[in-house]
Amino acid sequence: MSVLVTGGSGYIGAHIVRQLRDRGDTPVVVDDFVTGHRDRIAGIPQVETDLAQPDARRVLRNVMVDHGVTAIIHLAARKQAGASVQHPLEYYRDNTRGLVTVLQAARDAGVAHIVFSSSAAVYGDATDDVDEDSALMPANPYGRTKLLGEWLVAATARAYGLTTVSLRYFNVAGAQWADLADTARLNLIPIALGRLRDGQPPQIFGDDYDTPDGTCIRDFVHVADVADAHLAVLDALPRQRTHHRVFNVGTGVGTSVRAIVNGLQSRQGLSVPPIVVGRREGDPPRVVARVDRILNEVGWQAKHSLRDILDSVCAADVT
C-alpha cells in the first residue's frame, strides 16, 4: 500500500511512517518541515510544501498520482491549545485550509481512503470519561479547528463516496525509537523532563482544579500505540460500511500532571519540588477516553503502560 502522510516528519508522523515502512508499505511524506525533522524520515520520499498555500492542491495531486497513493493520513496542523487562544487566525487558516487542500487533491487523484488526525480537544471541558458520542464543546480554537475538520471530512466522504476515519488522540507521549523522541518541549512530559535535565524545577500549570490532587488529569497514550492505531484503521477501511467513523485513541486510564512529574523525578533520581504557576488558557480539568468502539470495530487497543511511556522518554535522553 502506498500511503501519503502529511506532517510525516513530526513526532507522531515519523512513528507512523517508520511503522508503515517496517511492515512493507510505501509511505511518502508531504510536510513544510517547520517543526518536523527531515532526518526522522531519511530514505522516505518527501515533498516540501505549505498545505495552506494556493499551489498546494496541484502539488498534492501530482504526488498522489506519481506515487500511486491509495490512502492518506493527514496529520499536518498546528497543535498547541494555548497558542491557539493567542493566534486563532493562524490556527484556522492552517488547520482548516490545509485540510480542504488535502480533500480536494484526494478527489482530484481518486484517492478514496483518508485518516484524519483529530483530537480529544473536541470534548472541551469534560468532567467524566468520554466516548465518541459525548458532547462536543471544544474549549479553544485548536479544538474547534479539529471539530470543524471532522465535519469537513464527513461531509466530503458522503458527497464523493470516500471512506474516512477521524482519530481523536488523547495525550500522546513516549518514544518507540530514541531518534524519534518528542524534542519540541511543547507538551507536558518533554517540558518537565527538559527542565529537570537543565537543573530547573518542573512546572505545574495550576493545582486548583476540581481533581483529587488539584492538577489536570489526562489519558496518556504511547506514541507507538497511536501509530499502530493508524495502521489498524487503514487495514479496516476497505471493510468499513459507512463513509465516516470516529474513534478515540487512548488507554481509558487517567493520570494527573503531578503524578507524571513525580514519575519523571523518580526516574531521574531528583527530588526538586515542582513550581506551581498559573493555569494555561483552554486547559480542561479532566479528559480521559472510553475506547470500546475502536476495540469492538477495529480490534485495536493500547498495549503500552504509563510506565513504558516514562521509561522510554527517560531512556531517549534527547530532551
Overview of the structural elements:
It is a single chain. Helix 4 (88-109) packs parallel to helix 5 and helix 6 (188-197) packs parallel to helix 8. Helix content is 39%, strand content 19%. The protein has a seven-stranded parallel sheet with strand order 3-2-1-4-5-7-12, sandwiched between helices. Strands 6-15-10-13 form a four-stranded mixed sheet. The chain has helices at 11-22, 56-66, 81-86, 88-109, 141-160, 188-197, 223-236, 257-268, 292-298, 306-316, and strands at 2-6, 26-31, 46-48, 71-74, 113-119, 129-130, 163-169, 171-173, 203-205, 217-218, 220-222, 244-249, 255-256, 275-277, 286-289. It folds into two domains: 2-172 and 220-249, NAD(P)-binding Rossmann-like Domain (Rossmann fold, 3-Layer(aba) Sandwich), CATH 3.40.50; 173-219 and 253-316, UDP-galactose 4-epimerase, domain 1 (Alpha-Beta Complex), CATH 3.90.25.10. The chain is an alpha/beta fold and 319 residues long. Strand 1, helix 1 (11-22) and strand 2 (26-31) form a beta-alpha-beta unit. The two termini are 34 Å apart.
Determine the CATH topology of the largest domain: Rossmann fold
Return the structural class: alpha/beta
User: What is the class of the largest domain in the CATH system?
Assistant: Alpha Beta
Poorly predicted runs: none
Question: Can you give me a brief rundown of this structure?
Answer:
With 319 residues, the chain is α/β, with parallel strands linked by helices. It has helices at residues 11-22, 56-66, 81-86, 88-109, 141-160, 188-197, 223-236, 257-268, 292-298, 306-316, and strands at 2-6, 26-31, 46-48, 71-74, 113-119, 129-130, 163-169, 171-173, 203-205, 217-218, 220-222, 244-249, 255-256, 275-277, 286-289.
